[in-house]
Design a protein that fits this description.
Number of domains of chain B: 1
Oligomer: heterodimer
Number of domains of chain A: 2
Shape of chain A: globular
Strand order of the largest sheet of chain A: 4-10-9-8-7-5-6
Largest sheet of chain B: 2 strands, antiparallel
Shape of chain B: globular
Structural class of chain A: alpha/beta
Strand content of chain B: 5-15%
Largest interface: A-B, 14 and 17 residues
CATH topology of the largest domain in chain A: Aspartate Aminotransferase, domain 2
Number of strands of chain A: 17
CATH architecture of the largest domain in chain A: 3-Layer(aba) Sandwich
Number of strands of chain B: 2
Number of helices of chain A: 14
Strand content of chain A: 15-25%
Largest sheet of chain A: 7 strands, mixed
Chain lengths: ~400, ~140
């Protein structure tokens, strides 16, 4: 069992200094830091195994293809897919979501049909559905959140109709940091015959996921938020959907045969992978997901939970601080803390914290409708990864208090 | 104080602090002390475009000189606009339009703001320059 300090040594950026102070990186919900194994793999793919995948017969190409396909198996195992054929590689979560909006939408959504999207979704899991609805004359319906940030699931059965074609929800909102009851949502939707897409961008980082147990129809995430190379993304879809959906982009790799009169398409997942994929980046998903499992192992997770509890308690004791995403039970809260402080603008706080060496996010967090829902122009967000320490959490809380006292 | 003296005074004030956190404290004080801005003047046309936080700038021409008032919902931004209008308020349009605003670089503001804030700062400067040029 590795301890946290050993693991931290794997992330060189954790040793960086900004303005002469140790960097405290609390913007993990935007992108994670990268461990040495991931960068080593990335470099090896670029320096030793650079060849296009699936095409040539030469040795290097077969090695590149092998590593690329190993990543597909690793992803399938990590999320509990039935087969690696259900894993489509994309350039990121946004690309995966757009792929579903385009291909599923093309085949199954028509005028007057409905798509349900949760109010707390990131723009990436909202705008593609708005575009689809505009294209098809379909109706976008909202699964709202209550004042504490919980999805109002009790209203879901009434929201679903015979015309609902898909329900889209994140397992964890990038703003609220609450574990959404996705298993319950899937059950309710399936009872009404509606498939469910789960955006796992945040959830994939914290804890484990089993898409078969969850029984969701689609699951998407980005590599860069879970320690892998940027420009990598995953779409999991049940095989029946991948077979029923038309391809996304046309080009090399996605075809079976091409004549001047037309083409027949390759079987999934290749049908959805036109063009040269991220050949150096995709194999990094193997060491990245290994790191994710290590960081979610019992000992490390216990430390992460202690950090979460400490921050949760500390924030609730700061006068004028309003936390968005208030857990009913703290175990449903991920270490993603978005808040406002009365009399202190989120941008000012972020700027002062930056000068104290702390990287946090301020603004609308790509979730404008949620900001509108809570009547704020923006929030401050501190998002922890399992590699963040209690010491960093304490420094963050002390620095936040200092910044507030400077502003008020 | 003429324009050159006013700019030098700001540079001198800033050089008193070594740490950027202290310089921010100074900007926060400037922001807090900025004279009250009429709430009814917080209109779309007075909003400076390109700032992440909202910044309003109002002006009037009196005896051939431009006078600025401003406000922002973020206090450091308010401090920055306060610093700018502190230097340029009460000058003739020609004087402002002819200035290079280089003192802003001299105090190292750009290097110490986030890229989005630098964009905001540039918008503030451009707005002041535009108002001056239109009235020159």
């Amino acid at each position: 069992m590795k301890n946290l300090q050993d693991i931290r040594a794997q992330f060189p950026q954790l040793q960086e200094k900004v303005y002469g102070k140790a960097l405290v990186y609390l913007d993990n919900a935007a992108t994670s830091l990268r461990p040495q194994d991931v960068v080593a793999c990335w470099q090896e793919m670029a320096f030793r195994y650079n060849a296009n995948v699936h095409r040539a017969v030469h040795k290097t190409a077969s090695e590149a293809t092998l590593r690329y396909e190993q990543a597909r198996r690793a992803v399938a195992e990590h999320i509990g897919a039935t087969s690696e054929k259900e894993i489509v590689f994309t350039s990121g979560d946004t690309a995966a979501l757009n792929l579903v909006a385009r291909c599923f939408g093309e085949a199954f959504v028509g005028a007057g049909d409905e798509i349900i999207v949760a109010q707390s979704e990131h723009h990436s899991n909202l705008v593609p559905w708005q575009m689809l609805c505009a294209r098809k004359g379909a109706v976008l319906k909202c699964l709202p959140v209550d004042e504490s940030g919980h999805l109002q699931v009790e209203g879901l059965p009434q929201l679903l109709s015979k015309r609902t074609r898909l329900l889209c929800v994140a397992d964890v909102s990038n703003v609220l940091g609450l574990r959404n009851p996705v298993a319950q949502i899937v059950r309710i939707a399936h009872e009404k015959g509606c498939p469910v897409l789960v955006d796992g961008a945040q959830g994939i980082v914290h804890g484990s996921i089993d898409v078969q147990a969850l029984d969701c129809d689609f699951y998407t995430f980005s590599g860069h938020k879970v320690y892998a190379a940027p420009g990598t993304g995953v779409l999991y879809a049940k095989r029946k959907w991948l077979e029923a959906m038309p391809p996304f982009m046309g080009g090399g790799e996605m075809i079976e045969s091409v004549a001047w009169e037309g083409a027949t398409y390759a079987a999934p997942p290749y049908k959805f992978e036109a063009g040269t994929p991220n050949i150096a980046g995709v194999p990094t998903l193997v060491p990245a997901l290994e790191m994710a499992r290590l960081l979610n192992s019992a000992d490390i997770a216990a430390e992460a939970d202690a950090v979460r509890d400490f921050v949760l308690e500390s924030l609730s004791s700061i006068p004028g601080l309003r936390l968005f995403g208030v857990p009913a039970d703290r175990t449903e809260k991920l270490p993603i803390f978005s808040f406002t402080v009365e009399g202190a603008h989120h941008e000012d706080l972020a700027l002062l914290l930056d000068k104290m060496g702390i990287a946090v996010r301020s603004g609308q967090m790509c979730a404008e409708p949620l900001m509108t829902r809570f009547g704020v122009t923006g929030m401050l967000r501190a998002s922890f990864a399992p590699y963040n320490t209690m010491e960093e959490a304490e420094y963050f809380v002390a620095s936040l208090k200092k910044a507030i006292s400077m502003l008020i | 104080m003429n324009l050159e003296e006013a700019k030098q005074a700001v540079i001198d004030d800033f050089s008193l602090y070594d740490e950027w956190l202290d310089k921010y404290e100074y900007l926060i004080e400037l922001g807090k002390n900025l004279e009250a801005f009429d709430e009814s003047h917080k209109t779309e046309d007075r909003l400076i475009k390109g700032c992440q936080s909202r910044v309003w700038l109002d002006w009037r021409l009196e005896d051939g000189k431009l006078f600025f008032t401003a406000d922002s919902d973020a206090i450091i931004t308010k401090g920055i606009i306060s610093l700018l209008i502190g230097v340029y308020s009460g000058r003739t349009p020609a004087e402002i339009a002819g200035d290079d605003f280089a003192f802003v670089s001299a105090i190292g503001l750009q290097e110490n703001l986030s890229p989005t804030r630098v964009g905001g700062l540039r918008s503030m400067i451009e707005t002041i320059q535009r108002i001056a040029t239109e009235n020159a």
